[in-house]
Amino acid sequence: MAATPPEQRIWWNEPIERVELIWIFIAFLWGLFMFGFMIAWHFIGQQNLSKEAYRIAPTAYEQKVENFAKQFQVREEQGIPVVKPKPGADVYLLARLWQWWPILELEKGQSYRIHLSSIDWQHGFSLQPTNINIQVHPGYEHVISLTPTESGAFGIVCNEFCGIGHHTMTGKIYVTDKKQAAADQRLAEQR
């Protein structure tokens, strides 16, 4: 029951007020603009992720990641290997209950091809504080190209509920600035 019922019982037959027509027209034009801009941004935004993905057995992907970690491990953090691949290399990251494995150490300004997959459930790869979000599925190897533009520590969060330990599923990517490290080293030597 309406607070003030329409004069006619069939309300949709009543004439539309001029102000309402103007707002409907503005909303329609705004919708067309946003639709068109989404298409345009796909081409001019330069933020689109790679559409490269392959089918792979989860056990085969796990073996790839373990071999990658053994080859490029530089240290360990809380029992998790920290790997530092060569610039331009293919980098492998594994999602499993409830961790991202291994920890990556990349160089600022260098490009990498990051391979992502899961060995058990669907997980979400959310690189914080940047806006990179990917659903990671077992049986599929997703490949994205990444060129870090800032140095620091970046967190990886699983943003797809994956069970009771979901809230603990995090990972890390360190980005080092080789030029800054060399400058810091020279400064330390001068002291």
Textual characterization of the structure:
This protein has 191 residues and is of the alpha+beta class. It has two domains: 11-44, no CATH class; 52-181, Cupredoxins -  blue copper proteins (Immunoglobulin-like, Sandwich), CATH 2.60.40.420. Helices cover 29% and strands 35% of the residues. The chain contains three helices and twelve strands, in the order H-E-H-E-E-E-E-E-E-E-E-E-E-E-H. The strands form two sheets. A seven-stranded mixed sheet has the order 2-3-6-12-11-8-9. The longest helix has 27 residues, at 18-44. The termini are far apart.
Give a summary of the structure in a few sentences.
This protein has 191 residues and is α+β, with helices and mostly antiparallel strands. The protein has helices at residues 18-44, 58-72, 178-190, and strands at 52-55, 73-77, 80-83, 90-96, 99-101, 103-107, 112-118, 123-128, 132-136, 140-146, 152-157, 170-176.
Main attributes of the structure:
single chain, elongated, 12 strands, alpha+beta, 7-stranded mixed beta sheet, Immunoglobulin-like, 2 domains, 191 residues
Structural classification = alpha+beta
Q: Please indicate the count of domains.
A: 2
Oligomer status: single chain
* Main sheet: strands, sense, barrel: 7 strands, mixed
Annotate the secondary structure layout:
Blueprint: H1 18-44, E1 52-55, H2 58-72, E2 73-77, E3 80-83, E4 90-96, E5 99-101, E6 103-107, E7 112-118, E8 123-128, E9 132-136, E10 140-146, E11 152-157, E12 170-176, H3 178-190
Parallel strand pairs: 3-6, 4-7, 6-12
Antiparallel strand pairs: 1-10, 2-3, 4-5, 7-10, 8-9, 8-11, 11-12
